[in-house]
Amino acid sequence: MKARVLFATITGNNEDVADEIIKTFQAKDVEVTKEDISNVDPFDIKPEETDILVVVPYTFDKGSLPDEALDFFEDLSDVDLSGIIFGVAGSGDTFYGKDFAVAVDKFETQLLKTGAIKGATGVHVNLSPNKSTKLQLAQFTEALIASAVK
């Protein structure tokens, strides 16, 4: 089984989120690749090479997507990812209230349009992973693996 974890980060918090997800994949013997989302063209993601796709965007300001992920996000509307299991987890700041980590929700909606299959409920992380969110991220990753095995 092969997974790709695509992340965007400024502060390093989201790379920490990605690393937690990767730890669980590795513990479950899933071959995993970690990539900066700005270096990935969604047209190059193929079901025969990727079983699980995880997107780890941060949310800043009042619900804005990461600048370095905008091209990827927009290109998803023209990509067919049928057969790929996906999940989204990312950081935000609860200070922004209703806009807290909404990039997770926006990416889930966009990925559903590609024909990809949502394999786990998105995880919203306040700033950086703490003990509780590390457990959530492990459960999220295990759910993705279980969805891909079916």
UniProtKB/TrEMBL annotation:
One matching Pfam family is Flavodoxin_1
Q: Which PROSITE patterns match?
A: FLAVODOXIN_LIKE
Keywords annotated in UniProt? Electron transport, Flavoprotein, FMN, Transport
Record GO terms (molecular function) = FMN binding; oxidoreductase activity, acting on NAD(P)H
List the cofactors.
Answer: FMN
Q: Where is the Flavodoxin-like domain?
A: 3-145
Q: What does this protein do?
A: Low-potential electron donor to a number of redox enzymes.
Assigned protein family: Belongs to the flavodoxin family.
Its recorded name reads Flavodoxin
Q: Which organism is it from?
A: Weissella muntiaci
